[in-house]
């Protein structure tokens, strides 16, 4: 449990960004789904399912970019050319 709390604290900013992105995405998805289907239940289902999966993917996308940038920092200090 302690490791989970530590992980949550270390990733607080990324989790906050993910949560705000999730709220915006649900709102947009609900409006678009309702405009297309005209069905409230279908729009709510679609707007919760797809953004939930996207939010999880976004979190891991951000973590991958953080790792990539951390790997580039030592090279930048030595003056090595990176792609």
From TrEMBL:
Where does the record place the DUF2061 domain? 15-66
UniProtKB keywords: Membrane, Transmembrane, Transmembrane helix
**What are the TM regions of this chain, as residue ranges?**
21-42
- Cross-referenced Pfam families: DUF2061
Q: Which PROSITE patterns match?
A: PROKAR_LIPOPROTEIN (PS51257)
Query: Could you tell me which InterPro entries the record lists for this protein?
Result: DUF2061_membrane
User: Under what name is this protein listed?
Assistant: DUF2061 domain-containing protein
């Amino acid at each position: 449990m302690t490791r989970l709390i530590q992980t949550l604290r270390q990733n607080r900013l990324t989790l906050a960004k993910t949560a705000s992105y999730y709220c915006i995405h649900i709102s947009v998805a609900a409006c678009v789904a309702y405009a297309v289907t005209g069905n409230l239940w279908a729009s709510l289902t679609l707007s919760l399912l797809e953004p939930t999966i996207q939010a999880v993917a976004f979190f891991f996308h951000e973590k991958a970019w953080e790792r990539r940038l951390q790997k580039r920092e030592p090279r930048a200090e030595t003056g090595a050319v990176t792609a």
